[in-house]
Specification:
By secondary structure, the protein is mainly alpha-helical. It has two domains: about 70 residues, no CATH class; about 120 residues, CBS-domain. It is built from ten helices and five strands. The chain has a three-stranded mixed β-sheet with strand order 1-2-3. Helix 6 links the parallel strand 1 and strand 2. Helix 2 packs across helix 10. The radius of gyration is 20 Å and the shape is elongated. The two termini are about 40 Å apart. The mean pLDDT is about 85.
Length: about 220
Amino acid sequence: PGAYALVGMAAVFSGASRATITAIIILFEMTLNYHIILPLMLACVVSDAISILIYKETIYTKKLIRRGIKYEYDREVSEFKVHTVKDSMVKDVVSVLDTSTVMEVSDMIINTGYQAFPVIDEDGNLTGMIAHHDIRKAIEKGRKDALMRDLKTKILVVVNPDTLVEDAMELMAVHGIGHLPVVNSSAPEKLVGFISRSDVIFFAKEQFEKDSEDA
């Protein structure tokens, strides 16, 4: 119930102020809960979209209009519409071979703290993804010696370095995933990076702090 209230609070603020990214960052910093990020992003984006359809002004611009102050700004320009995946992706990717066993990957999860890994073949080509819940299920079923080639998710949602951060966020929200492999634009099988929801959030936070310092 508490989480629902917090997400609702952020959604209301997002819709009223159109400061969607700010609402997401503030609530994430308040809770430091990674599990809340996806519903938080969805709620804030939907609230913002509905608000735009209903009324074109925000609570702030409405005050300016009432005071007779004219203003001009481009609603289409935002950090996520300008910056691309290469600005926030992790370039030193920790991947696993498709011949790795469940217990080997389990040890990697414990040692690195990562929740998902790209799966590559012996030639370094991206062949799938494996997440911590896949490993947990395999261990629960006694498949400790199973190989990643048999457990990985083969249908991949990928982005390239030139994909807009906004589009990457939308893909994560639509597919209900928290991470995306970044592949070479001209060679889709070649892994060049990795981007997650937390990478996007921290990137947005850095940009927000930078803009605040420059203001």
